[in-house]
Amino acid sequence: QVQLVESGGGLVQPGGSLRLSCAASGNIFSINAMGWYRQTPGKERELVAAVTNEGSTAYRDSVKGRFTISRDNAKNTVYLQMNSLKPEDTAVYYCKLILRSRSGDGNLLYYWGQGTQVTVSS
Known about the structure:
It contains no helices and 11 strands. By secondary structure, it is mostly beta strands. It is elongated and about 50 Å long.
Protein backbone atom coordinates (compact mmCIF):
# COMPACT_ATOMS: atom_id res chain seq x y z
CA GLN A 1 0.00 0.00 0.00
CA VAL A 2 1.03 3.61 -0.52
CA GLN A 3 0.81 6.37 2.04
CA LEU A 4 0.96 10.13 1.53
CA VAL A 5 1.75 12.40 4.46
CA GLU A 6 1.13 16.12 4.06
CA SER A 7 2.46 18.97 6.17
CA GLY A 8 3.01 22.71 6.07
CA GLY A 9 -0.47 24.18 6.25
CA GLY A 10 -1.44 26.94 8.61
CA LEU A 11 -2.77 30.45 9.08
CA VAL A 12 -1.06 33.33 7.29
CA GLN A 13 -1.85 36.94 6.48
CA PRO A 14 -2.51 38.07 2.92
CA GLY A 15 0.78 38.42 1.09
CA GLY A 16 2.42 35.79 3.25
CA SER A 17 3.99 32.49 2.26
CA LEU A 18 3.69 28.81 3.08
CA ARG A 19 5.40 25.69 1.81
CA LEU A 20 3.44 22.46 1.68
CA SER A 21 5.16 19.08 1.63
CA CYS A 22 3.85 15.66 0.66
CA ALA A 23 5.97 12.57 1.22
CA ALA A 24 5.01 9.28 -0.42
CA SER A 25 6.03 5.91 0.98
CA GLY A 26 5.19 2.26 0.51
CA ASN A 27 4.90 0.15 -2.62
CA ILE A 28 6.10 2.75 -5.11
CA PHE A 29 7.41 1.50 -8.44
CA SER A 30 7.15 4.36 -10.88
CA ILE A 31 5.64 7.79 -10.34
CA ASN A 32 3.78 9.22 -13.29
CA ALA A 33 2.95 12.54 -11.68
CA MET A 34 2.30 14.31 -8.41
CA GLY A 35 0.08 17.27 -7.83
CA TRP A 36 -1.74 19.55 -5.46
CA TYR A 37 -5.48 20.10 -5.37
CA ARG A 38 -7.60 22.26 -3.12
CA GLN A 39 -11.19 22.22 -1.96
CA THR A 40 -13.50 24.55 -0.06
CA PRO A 41 -16.89 23.60 1.43
CA GLY A 42 -19.56 23.21 -1.21
CA LYS A 43 -17.12 23.30 -4.12
CA GLU A 44 -15.44 20.66 -6.22
CA ARG A 45 -11.82 19.81 -5.68
CA GLU A 46 -9.70 21.75 -8.17
CA LEU A 47 -6.21 21.30 -9.54
CA VAL A 48 -3.67 23.81 -8.25
CA ALA A 49 -0.40 22.50 -9.70
CA ALA A 50 1.12 19.29 -11.00
CA VAL A 51 4.53 17.96 -11.94
CA THR A 52 5.21 14.94 -14.15
CA ASN A 53 7.92 12.33 -13.80
CA GLU A 54 9.78 14.11 -16.58
CA GLY A 55 9.66 17.40 -14.70
CA SER A 56 6.99 19.22 -16.67
CA THR A 57 4.77 21.46 -14.58
CA ALA A 58 1.28 22.87 -14.90
CA TYR A 59 -0.51 25.49 -12.84
CA ARG A 60 -3.99 26.80 -12.37
CA ASP A 61 -4.20 30.25 -13.93
CA SER A 62 -5.04 31.95 -10.64
CA VAL A 63 -1.81 30.78 -8.98
CA LYS A 64 0.64 31.26 -11.85
CA GLY A 65 3.54 33.45 -10.80
CA ARG A 66 2.75 32.93 -7.12
CA PHE A 67 2.98 29.18 -6.54
CA THR A 68 5.80 26.82 -7.47
CA ILE A 69 5.58 23.04 -7.47
CA SER A 70 8.73 20.96 -7.17
CA ARG A 71 9.66 17.33 -6.64
CA ASP A 72 12.48 15.56 -4.85
CA ASN A 73 12.69 12.24 -6.68
CA ALA A 74 15.08 10.68 -4.17
CA LYS A 75 12.61 11.30 -1.35
CA ASN A 76 9.39 10.74 -3.32
CA THR A 77 8.29 14.11 -2.02
CA VAL A 78 6.47 16.95 -3.72
CA TYR A 79 6.39 20.54 -2.49
CA LEU A 80 4.19 23.53 -3.12
CA GLN A 81 5.77 26.89 -2.40
CA MET A 82 2.98 29.43 -2.05
CA ASN A 83 3.87 33.12 -2.12
CA SER A 84 1.76 36.26 -2.20
CA LEU A 85 -1.13 34.36 -0.68
CA LYS A 86 -4.63 35.74 -1.06
CA PRO A 87 -7.80 35.08 0.96
CA GLU A 88 -9.23 33.19 -2.01
CA ASP A 89 -6.40 30.68 -1.63
CA THR A 90 -8.00 29.52 1.61
CA ALA A 91 -8.85 25.83 1.27
CA VAL A 92 -7.91 22.33 2.27
CA TYR A 93 -4.99 21.32 0.09
CA TYR A 94 -4.63 17.69 -0.97
CA CYS A 95 -1.63 15.93 -2.42
CA LYS A 96 -2.29 13.52 -5.29
CA LEU A 97 0.00 10.75 -6.45
CA ILE A 98 -0.34 8.95 -9.79
CA LEU A 99 1.60 5.70 -10.04
CA ARG A 100 2.25 3.43 -12.97
CA SER A 101 1.35 -0.18 -12.22
CA ARG A 102 4.23 -2.51 -11.47
CA SER A 103 2.48 -5.21 -13.53
CA GLY A 104 3.37 -3.45 -16.76
CA ASP A 105 -0.21 -3.36 -17.96
CA GLY A 106 -0.09 0.41 -18.28
CA ASN A 107 -2.68 1.00 -15.56
CA LEU A 108 -2.44 4.10 -13.42
CA LEU A 109 -3.05 4.09 -9.67
CA TYR A 110 -4.27 7.13 -7.78
CA TYR A 111 -3.65 8.08 -4.15
CA TRP A 112 -4.61 11.09 -2.05
CA GLY A 113 -3.08 12.67 1.00
CA GLN A 114 -5.09 13.47 4.10
CA GLY A 115 -5.34 17.18 3.35
CA THR A 116 -3.87 20.19 5.11
CA GLN A 117 -5.71 23.41 5.91
CA VAL A 118 -4.44 26.68 4.48
CA THR A 119 -6.12 29.81 5.78
CA VAL A 120 -5.24 33.27 4.48
CA SER A 121 -6.79 35.99 6.59
CA SER A 122 -5.98 39.30 8.20
